[in-house]
Specification:
Structural class: mainly alpha
Distance between the termini: 40 Å
Strand content: under 5%
Largest sheet: none
Length: about 50
């Protein structure tokens, strides 16, 4: 568990350093596309599961 805490702190530090350099509009678009693709995958997986 202590290693996970260290990883979380490190990730938080890195994110704070790069947050100002990221174009927010592009970031929002990338996140929305990722959520959409994940949603489509879950829907397809459920459709395939119910057909079996």
């Amino acid at each position: 568990m202590p290693i996970l805490f260290g990883i979380a702190l490190g990730g938080s530090y890195v994110c704070r350093k790069i947050i100002g350099k990221i174009n927010q509009a592009k970031f929002k678009k990338v996140v929305l596309i990722a959520v959409m693709l994940a949603s489509i995958k879950f829907i397809v997986d459920d459709m395939v599961e119910f057909q079996l």
